[in-house]
Every structure is written in structure tokens, then in C-alpha cells.
Amino acid sequence: MRLHSRTGSSAELRMAAAAAAESVPGSQREESIRDDAAVETAEEAKEPAEADITELCRDMFSKMATYLTGELTATSEDYKLLENMNKLTSLKYLEMKDIAINISRNLKDLNQKYAELQPYLDQINVIEEQVAALEQAAYKLDAYSKKLEAKYKKLEKR
Known about the structure:
- This protein has helices at residues 10-23, 26-41, 50-157.
- The chain is mostly helical.
- Residues 1-10 have low confidence and may be disordered.
């Protein structure tokens, strides 16, 4: 709070002090006059001049505009960053989509080739079963021929 000294109203103060002095006893009058002198030099601050208020308002609005501009710029930059991140994510998803399409196409090709090979694989399985049966027949024939040989040797010894 700023204190201004009063100018041009000291006469009013003296008249008020004189009126107060008439109703106050002598010893208190001297103290009252001393207090009035202090009041005369220091007074409650007056409102700032209209030019000061205007200048302060301009300064406040300027600073507020600077602050809001900074806030809006920061928010705008955040949104630009999010936009760039979304674009990059979208590109990554497109790449992943292309990779998935290629994998799907390759899988279809492999399934088609497997389907084309299936009759041959079935033939291989049949041949394998036949070979296994032939092998069993060969083992049985071998066992039978060993028995025959043993009988022949037994008969030869007699």
C-alpha cells in the first residue's frame, strides 16, 4: 500500500484538530496535536491514477496472452507429436498387414503343394506297408528255410 502526503488539505486537518481540542482537556490536547501532525504527513494510499491502472491492465493482459500462447503452443506441439506417432503406428500396421498377407499367400501355396503331393505321399505309405509285409514274409521264409536245412542235415546224418 502506498502512502501519499496530503497537499492542499492541511487547513481541513487543522480545523478538525481545533474542534477536537475544544472538547478535550489540556494535556490531551498536546498529544492530539502531535498525532494530527503524524496524520498530516502520512495518509492511506489513494487509488492509482487512471493511467497507472490502464498500464497495469495492459501489462497483465500482455503477460496473460504470453502465458496462454505458451500453453496453447505446448498443447499444439503435443497434438502434433501424437499425430506423428499415429502416422508411424499406422505405417507399421500397414507393414505388418503386408507381411501377414505374404505369409497367408505362402501358406496357401504350401497347402496347395502339399495337396498336390498327397497322392504321392499316399503311394509312399502304401509302398512302405508293402515293404513291411514283404520284410515279414522274408523273415518267415528265412525261418522256414533254416528249419528245412536243419531237417535236411538231420536226415543226411541218418
